[in-house]
Fold this sequence. Notes:
Blueprint: H1 2-31, E1 42-51, E2 59-68, E3 71-72, E4 76-82, H2 83-86, E5 88-92, E6 105-107, E7 111-112, E8 128-129, E9 134-139, E10 151-158, E11 163-171
Antiparallel strand pairs: 1-2, 2-9, 3-8, 4-5, 4-10, 5-6, 7-9, 10-11
Amino acid sequence: MRAATSVTAVVLMVAVVVVLAGTVAVFTLGSTDTISSPAPLIGQTSGELVRDTAGGGDQIVRLTHIAGDDVAVSDLDVVVDATAACGKRARIVDLPTSTLGPSTYDGDKLFDFYSPDGGAFDANTDGVWRPGETATFRIANRDCSLDSGDTITVRVVHTPSETVVIEDTLTAS
């Protein structure tokens, strides 16, 4: 009888170890599914904040992707912080788009239609922002009056990785 008890105990111990190892493996390997893909590398950009027309009050934001990876525009949001200038902040979402309206931004009302040159965020492009291309949007004077010397901060966020890939402080001309 003693030999049968030892064999049963060994079988039960092996079963417990296998179940524990399986449980640990599931939790360990299952957690790797939540790791997001790395953000694209945008090595260099230039930004400017210029008047739309001579004597006009609207400001055009131009962000030029100079060097780095191609980026799917649909993976980007643009956060504009104009709290120092007019106390407002907004986030452009659902890019690319052909117009900036209440359905394409979150936060305060800051934006107007695109400037005539459209840019990489425009729905009429191929949806990829490449080095050498410029993305533009307009800040409406009626929503946020920017005087010469006022600053805004523009952040481009890669949404799948939740990483800021561009951060630029721009000064109104």
